[in-house]
């Protein structure tokens, strides 16, 4: 049997565009509200909601929050594979953005709108709806993360492109971290209202990115070959991907532990539940103003050097919070601002580096496998983020923290107060510093990427199966993908 694949490309196509238009940047970036809200709100409030509103034991609540993530290992990988192999007038990724928009907003609202249950039944309800929400998130987020690597071939343009995404992520985190706790309060009715409000925000953002990327250029490979097992093996043998996944997981876990501990730190260390809002303002404020700085540092220090600096700042800020009992609430907020500066760099650089890894693999293999990489990435990212809440729940359990509901408050022991503090400072600091050490082993630089034509399009010419296609001046109605009939596959 002889297989023949022929890609017919319009003469108006631009094989190696290096710049992405402002409209497409903003259209892509608006989807970050989905990433920010779904990553932040469950991590910030779901554990607290279960232990302090639904009276679920802390250790059991942590396990329930983590178990749906086991499904992510399957769902994210499958979605990545499907999006790699999708051929449509909307391109390979955008149909999946729409599918996610139909699932996630509704299941997110249901997650916080459960029947009047407490204890184990309440935990099971939250677990099932969280599983549905995680599935919707996989349908959207996996192809969404793969898109930057396919919009431009320029190493530094990918960082600049993602700068817009990080700015809107900061806005989304601010909305999640400031408005969501204010709306939720400490009552079941408040949490229901919050779930509906943010479910609507998710819907608008996800549809916005679907329509906003309709004219996005496409510079990726035009086919995906091999079985799922073969492509997973390819991802596992990519040293750059594995090191990046490891250091990113450490960063995500450290941030997840700190995120889950924020409401407890505000309530029991600062004795001010409203401080959760101001602490989040201190965290995301630097993200809004330091992105241009991190883009500049990525050029001066290369992305690896900038990543090491950002991780070090995060670690130092977390450890400095330990002095809060002696120096007070204002001091705690200043330390969180240091954490925020480091967190801004971590968020920008890890996704820029992921786009580099995808571009490098495509240039070397001549195949479209970005969905496999982002599927594995998102599965691990979600599992690690959920593990952050689980780990903090375990720390509370070791410290003797006693769960309660609003009608029956309890006085926590001294050991519980110590656990609250250690869990939000020392634990995330040590984890994040481990990520700094792993960053030293990451070696995909601009020069190395340029050598295979993955940085500016000046490297070796792509094969017929890897021909890059762009939508031309306006990207076309299909997001830069060939129209039906433009790709001819014949086997004999």
Stretches with pLDDT under 50, minimum 5 residues? 1-16, 454-492
* Average pLDDT level: 78
Radius of gyration from the alpha-carbon trace, in angstroms:
22 Å
Instruction: Give the beta-strand count.
Output: 2
Q: Biggest sheet, strands in spatial order?
A: 1-2
- Count the DSSP helices: 17
Largest sheet: 2 strands, antiparallel
Q: Tell me the overall shape.
A: globular
Report the helical percentage. Answer: 55-70%
Q: What percent of residues are in strands?
A: under 5%
Order of helices and strands: EHHHHHHHHHHHHHHHHHE
Class by SSE composition:
mainly alpha
- Spatial gap, N to C terminus: 6 Å
Biased composition (Low complexity): 458-471
Protein name: MFS transporter
Region (Disordered): 458-492
Transmembrane segments: 54-75, 96-114, 120-140, 161-184, 196-220, 241-266, 278-298, 305-324, 330-349, 370-395, 415-440
Summary?
The protein is mostly helical and 492 residues long. The protein contains 17 helices and two strands. The chain has helices at 22-29, 32-52, 58-66, 68-85, 94-111, 119-146, 155-184, 188-212, 228-236, 239-269, 275-320, 324-327, 329-365, 370-398, 414-424, 426-439, 446-451, and strands at 3-7, 487-491.
Task: Report on this structure.
This protein is mainly α and 492 residues long. 70% of the residues lie in helices and 2% in strands. The chain is built from 17 helices and two strands. Helix 3 (58-66) runs parallel beside helix 6. The longest helix is centred in the middle third of the chain and has 46 residues, at 275-320. It starts with a strand and ends with a strand. Residues 1-16 and 454-492 have low confidence and may be disordered.
